[in-house]
Amino acid sequence: MNVNQNNLVDCKEISEIEFTDLKNLWMNDYAISFARSGLMDQKTASNRAAEMWSKTFEEGKETKGHLIRTIIDYDSKHTVGYIWVSQFYPNQKKCFLSYLHVKLDFRRRGFGKAAMEMIDIHLKRNGITEMTLNVFSDNQAARALYSSLGYSEALVTMRKEL
After folding, report:
1. Does the pLDDT at position 43 exceed 80?
2. Has residue 46 been placed in a domain?
3. Looking at the predicted structure, is the pLDDT value of residue 68 above 60?
4. For the chain, what is the domain count?
5. Which of 25, 92, 108, 135 has its CA 20 to 30 A from that of 142?
């Protein structure tokens, strides 16, 4: 990606094997998160995730409107995670962080923050002026990360069981 200013991570184009890994991680995280939130059961969420992935990536990793990168530890060259940004409306200068995943062994070491900062630079250089994202309320680590990067709440969904 060649915008590395922090010497902690590099972001490279995702391979087919990594794309499959990303798919499995995202679908699993999607189902678990929705089930944990109580918004839907895990089986329904798993089915919905598979359907959404198929519709989103009809042309595989080459589908237009998505920036998907493998996050690499700059020193060890190990894959530490993935980042996926979507631009649903190409005529607008906005995008959406669809997924950020840092592998368990690499969390709390600054890799997610460094990757987000690197992606921000890349997006700004390409005329993007705003990025939004969704995060589950119980994901305190992610919420803290996004807040530290300047994100603020724009919408809060609330629920109550009856």
Report:
1. yes
2. yes
3. yes
4. 1
5. 92
Amino acid at 133: L
Six-digit token string for 55: 């519709």
- The answer to whether the CB of 60 falls within 8 A of the CB of 97 is no
Structure tokens at 152: 């603020």
> Has residue 154 been placed in a domain?
no
**2 CB neighbour count, 10 Å cutoff:** 8
Tell me, yes or no, whether 82 lies in a domain. yes
Q: Please, are residues 18 and 70 in contact by the beta-carbon 8 Å criterion?
A: yes
Which single residue is written with the structure tokens 């996050």? Answer: 71
In which domain, by residue range, is 135 found? 9-148
Yes or no: say if 33 and 134 are a contact pair by the CB < 8 Å rule: no
Query: Hey, what are 114's tokens?
Result: 């460094």
Q: Is 159 part of a structural domain of the chain?
A: no
Strand order in the sheet with 94-102: 9-13, 66-73, 79-86, 94-102, 130-133
What is the β-pairing status of strands 79-86 and 94-102?
antiparallel
